């Protein structure tokens, strides 16, 4: 078990900062997810924690020790990659046991650890097979097993599920979450899949171009994104954005774009920003189809996409096209006009230039 602290941790390749002054504290036994698009520095961060890359600047601590240049084998970390990197000539049993044999663990102890791990991963019946005789999901379980038996202080995973098909990813996600609960070990997990991040993480570190954008729990990150990048990265379909201006009419604060006016009374930062050019953000599930009322807006339905559990509607609101999520029971066809409502407490406002949330300007 270990607490990990990145203090202004930086990795430069030539002039490019792959990881740029990262401050990040990972609690003992926490499940931390590093989330961001391709090239944002996730793997580089993980590799520095593993000891596979040396930092260019800043410090990396395990508990209270600086480990910047400590070789990987002394760190007691286990790493699982996207590619399973199994030994093709060895059986599943020997693949899992390999690290333990290297460390001269007694044979009986090895046997117990391997069978325990295989049991947990539900691959107990496959121990005699070679990797080539396994499915992708089974291979990834073997890779997990190999990491598991080493009882690492820290478990590092770099997109371990991205080679698997969608339904297997969900099964394996559940398995990894259970593993974390039973092992009580620090996990650092890299992914570009926001759903994976949301379901697994105690906290999510959202990265972009080597820079940490937001560090918070899944709910907080989803409900109070600090900027448009984070807002757009979490959630599917993604948050709708509308450019416009704030104005004050009869004591109410309105977001206006041409004929479209949305009441934003009480949205953090709104009242102090009259006249400002902003971007209004609203998630698809927060555009509610309602009965006609004073506050409702008229939306023209362009497309209807049924998904079974829900429907996605492409709608025109004023001159902007948005996606709304509707109940599966709603009877609606393209061309229909629906009254919709956007509750002020569900609205996000961002500065149009900096893309930062106006909520950050509100002094607590
Ligand atoms: N050995 C290297 N030499 C030069 N540049 C590198 C090297 N490794 C990574 N980079 C650059 O550093 C940046 C971060 O790379 P990194 O592999 O950490 O991204 P990532 O977030 O893991 O992306 P992906 O989701 O595609 O795996 C990228 O711009 C990448 O091109
Ligand atoms: Mg990567």
Written overview of the protein:
By secondary structure, the chain is an alpha+beta fold. It folds into two domains: 4-233, 3-Layer(aba) Sandwich (Rossmann fold); 240-361, Nucleic acid-binding proteins (OB fold (Dihydrolipoamide Acetyltransferase, E2P), Beta Barrel), CATH 2.40.50.140. The protein has eight helices and 20 strands. The chain has helices at residues 42-50, 92-102, 107-120, 136-148, 166-183, 194-200, 218-223, 228-233, and strands at 4-13, 16-26, 31-35, 57-62, 65-66, 77-80, 154-158, 186-191, 203-208, 211-216, 240-249, 252-257, 260-263, 277-282, 287-289, 297-306, 310-317, 320-327, 337-342, 348-351. A six-stranded mixed β-sheet has the order 6-7-8-3-9-10, sandwiched between helices. A hairpin with a 2-residue loop joins strand 12 (252-257) and strand 13. It is globular and about 80 Å long. Bound molecules: adenosine-5'-triphosphate (ATP) and magnesium ion (MG). Adenosine-5'-triphosphate is lined by residues 13, 16, 18, 36, 38-44, 192.
Distinct bound molecules: adenosine-5'-triphosphate, magnesium ion
Q: What is the molecular shape?
A: globular
Helix content: 10-25%
| Topology, number of strands | 20
Order of helices and strands: EEEHEEEHHHEHEHEEHHEEEEEEEEEE
The averaged pLDDT comes out at: 94
Let me know the CATH homologous superfamily of the largest domain.
P-loop containing nucleotide triphosphate hydrolases
CATH topology of the largest domain: Rossmann fold
Give the biggest sheet: 6 strands, mixed
Could you list the spans in which at least 5 consecutive residues all have pLDDT below 50? none
| Helical stretch tally | 8
């Amino acid at each position: 078990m270990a607490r990990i602290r990145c203090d202004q941790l930086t990795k430069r390749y030539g002039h490019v900062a792959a990881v740029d002054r990262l401050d990040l504290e990972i609690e003992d036994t926490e499940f931390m997810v590093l989330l961001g698009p391709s090239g944002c520095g996730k793997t580089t961060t993980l590799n520095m924690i593993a000891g596979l890359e040396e930092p260019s600047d800043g410090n990396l601590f395990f508990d209270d020790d600086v480990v910047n240049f400590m070789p990987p084998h002394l760190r007691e970390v286990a790493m699982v990659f996207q590619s399973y990197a199994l030994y093709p000539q060895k059986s599943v049993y020997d693949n899992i046991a390999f690290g333990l044999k290297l460390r001269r663990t007694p044979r009986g102890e090895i046997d117990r650890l391997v069978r325990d791990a295989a049991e947990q991963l539900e691959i107990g019946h496959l121990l005699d097979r070679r990797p080539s005789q396994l499915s992708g999901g089974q291979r990834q379980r073997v890779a997990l097993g190999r990491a598991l038996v080493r009882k690492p202080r820290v478990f590092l995973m770099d997109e371990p599920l991205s080679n698997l098909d969608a339904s297997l990813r969900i099964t394996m996600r559940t398995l990894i979450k259970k593993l974390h609960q039973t092992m009580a070990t620090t996990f650092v997990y890299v992914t570009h899949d926001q759903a994976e991040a949301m379901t697994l993480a105690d906290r999510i570190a959202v990265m972009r171009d080597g820079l940490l954008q937001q560090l918070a729990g899944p709910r907080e990150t989803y409900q109070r994104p600090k900027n448009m990048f984070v807002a757009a990265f979490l959630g599917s379909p993604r948050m709708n954005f509308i450019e416009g201006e704030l104005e004050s009419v009869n004591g109410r604060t309105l977001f206006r774009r041409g004929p479209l006016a949305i009441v934003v009374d009480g949205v953090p930062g709104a009242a102090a920003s009259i006249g400002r050019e902003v971007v209004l953000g609203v998630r698809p599930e927060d555009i509610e189809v309602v009965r006609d009322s004073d506050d409702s807006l008229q939306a023209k339905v362009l497309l209807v996409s049924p998904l079974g559990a829900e429907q996605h509607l492409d709608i025109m609101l004023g001159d902007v096209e948005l996606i709304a999520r509707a109940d599966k029971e709603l009877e609606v066809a393209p061309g229909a006009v629906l009254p919709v409502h956007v509750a002020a407490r569900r609205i996000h406002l961002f500065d149009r230039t900096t893309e930062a949330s106006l909520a950050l300007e509100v002094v607590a």
